[in-house]
Each structure stands twice: as C-alpha cells, then as structure tokens.
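Let us practice reading a record.
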Amino acid sequence: MSTKHWTVDIAIDDDGSGRTTARATLAAAAATPPLRGAGTAERNRYDEDVPVIGDELAVGRALVELGNKLLAQADADLERTPA
C-alpha cells in the first residue's frame, strides 16, 4: 500500500469593492502539468459586507471547476489506456 499526498494551493484576491476571485492549483505529480480552477463571487450592494462569505463562494467555485477538470483528465487518461 502506498500513500500519496496532493496539495491544492488556493489564492484569494479581494478587490475591496465586494468582488472576490479565487484560483485553485493542483500539482498532482511531477510528470503531469498542474490543473487550475477559478471562481468568483460578487457582493450585492444591498448585502452586508462579510468578506469571508465571498471567500467561501469564490473558493468553492474554484474547487468545483478544478474537480471537473480533474475528472475530465481522468476520463481522457482512461480513453488512452488499453482495455
């Protein structure tokens, strides 16, 4: 049995006006290019200013996109693998 550790790096940018952008990057293996996902959140001007909510939404969306790309990569790898 072997244990593998993959790390996802998440960068969050808040422009100060209620718009938050997150980038999630997965570097799974040395021979594989990193996969990236991005997400955004924008506060409605009538909503209370709670920055952590924007962070959570943007990061969640970035992780969903990253997860979808990882599943697509696995599907492509399965297609290239002989049965």
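A brief commentary: The two ends are 24 Å apart (CA to CA).
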